[in-house]
Design the sequence.
């Protein structure tokens, strides 16, 4: 199994690497954003953590969505993007409020068997299984030396 970290593309990450330190800069920025985001006043409550990992046969997308009802989840694969949307409902002072959460993950259509995608939601964890096409699975090729 191989773990793949998904980073939402930013203008900095789209630029070609200029120095060996640029990857470290991006990671430091991400860490500061994650730990100090609530103090900056720009807290983005519409996003939630997503992990991607894969094995030989499948790619998995795992999202933490505690407190969300199964009926308030929507998972779609559209134009090469896996879109996860959820609605969180809260009750305070006798009134109900709802706000939307969403994430999109780029998924190459050529690598996924779209008719066999499945999703499970258990204990606040959504796991989407994306089966790989036979052509996209890794193969071992023997090389002969003459």
Sequence:
């Amino acid at each position: 199994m191989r773990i793949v970290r998904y980073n939402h593309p930013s203008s900095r990450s789209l630029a070609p690497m200029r120095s060996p330190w640029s990857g470290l800069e991006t990671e430091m920025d991400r860490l500061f954003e994650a730990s100090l985001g609530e103090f900056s006043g720009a807290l983005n409550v519409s996003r939630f953590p997503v992990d991607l990992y894969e094995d030989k046969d499948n790619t998995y997308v795992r999202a933490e969505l505690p407190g969300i009802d199964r009926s308030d989840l929507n998972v779609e694969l559209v134009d090469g993007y896996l879109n996860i949307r959820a609605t969180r409902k809260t009750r305070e002072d006798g009134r109900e409020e709802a706000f939307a959460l969403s994430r999109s993950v780029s998924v190459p259509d050529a690598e996924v068997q779209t008719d066999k995608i499945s999703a499970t939601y258990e204990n606040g964890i959504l796991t989407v299984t994306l089966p790989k096409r036979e052509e996209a699975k890794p193969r071992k090729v023997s090389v002969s030396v003459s």
